[in-house]
## 1
Amino acid sequence: MKLFYLDRSQRTLTVIATGFLLALSSCRESSVTKGRSTPRPTSHEPVAPEHVPLPQLCTEMDCQSSISFNLPESLIQLPNLGIRIHSQGQTGEKNCSFSISSGTKVSSVSDCPQILLKTLGGELAGFELVRFEPSSMVLEVLRGTAVVHRQEVKPSYVVYRPNGDDCPPECNQATVVVGSDN
């Protein structure tokens, strides 16, 4: 037995050809069924073939749950920016802290997930914590040891499915605008 695999365009062509053949077969002059004659259909519209569902096709793009933090200009200008986060989530409490110096270097990382710095025009615009999705948190921005901004946050997550609605994986993503009420 020889198997043939059809790509999407070949399947589409097969469905169109099947519909055309069905339309032609319904347009015969007449057919005899148990001694009765059935007249030819008066409509010249093609008869649609039965719907044959195509198999679900999914790509294999990956994604990670994360929270993105957008920093206001007033905090970005601090020479050595300290970030401290106390979070609550499914895995319990977590305390994460790190420093950003010169707007491009992360240092003094303590108990944090992967940290990505966000830039705009070469300047620091914020940061993102990857594989991090707490239900609530307290964010503190420090200059040295002094807290210059404190914000309680309950992130609103958006479900992201990079491969389509019915395909894995599923990731939760949120954005926090530091200095706003979110």
Note: The two ends are 62 Å apart (CA to CA).
## 2
Amino acid sequence: MNNAFLSTSEFAEKYIELLQPLENSVVRTYREIPSLHDHDVLRVYEALLKYVKAKLTNYPLPQPKLEGTPLSLYLEQLSFIETQANSYSFKEIQECLKLLEKSVKLWNREFGSRGYFNYISRFSNGISLLGL
């Protein structure tokens, strides 16, 4: 599926059923574990991207270098991604994770160590990526 010509908001709308649950699990984890920071979530998205890349290239699946809360979040999101593999290609999942990674970097750079959380936690009925 070629998404090269979609705007960020069009992309987010097209993949809302994949993006929104991933961000909602991040918000839920942030609220449960106040010590979680954007860099922890960034590491989770990076580990998920490595996993998806391995699936796309038939490489051995990597072991995430995460522990504690980031590992729990990774496993939760990995489980969700696996359930979505029947509805979305791993290439589409990869594109979504890249957009989430970009969002973490943007809001963290703009508003500090919990900028991404502070931004996405404001959205309950929509996807935060529409603000990119």
Note: Residues 3 and 11 are 7 Å apart (CA to CA).
## 3
Amino acid sequence: MQQLRGTPLKRFLRDWRREHPQTRDIVLVLQSVSYPVNVGSLFRIADAVNVRHMYLCGATPTPPNKTIMKVGRNKDTDVRWSYEKNAEDVLVRLRDEGYHISALGSRTNRCLTMKSSTRSGWLWCSATRITA
């Protein structure tokens, strides 16, 4: 079997995506991510994995920000995002809509559950809903 490269690979992947549509909605909730470089990186990741929406909360910088635009390579125009003051309200709303909440924190001694969503130290939170 010969390895696919270039145009044949692109055609194969396009056909595969048509036959296997995405069955999950992924939403990111960023709580007080203080560095624009990290926010820009997350915009790039969000674009790569086809994130449905990004909620920027708390002290997280928002576009238009020169650093976010530079590091994120203007992906803030491709990924839907909005600013919400309180991340806990967003998480409760997403949970009520049927999303599964997963969290990643920057401190190892924190318990990452819905109860601790008001504590500082979160990097980002992901919500996934299976839609099939």
Note: The longest strand covers residues 122-130.
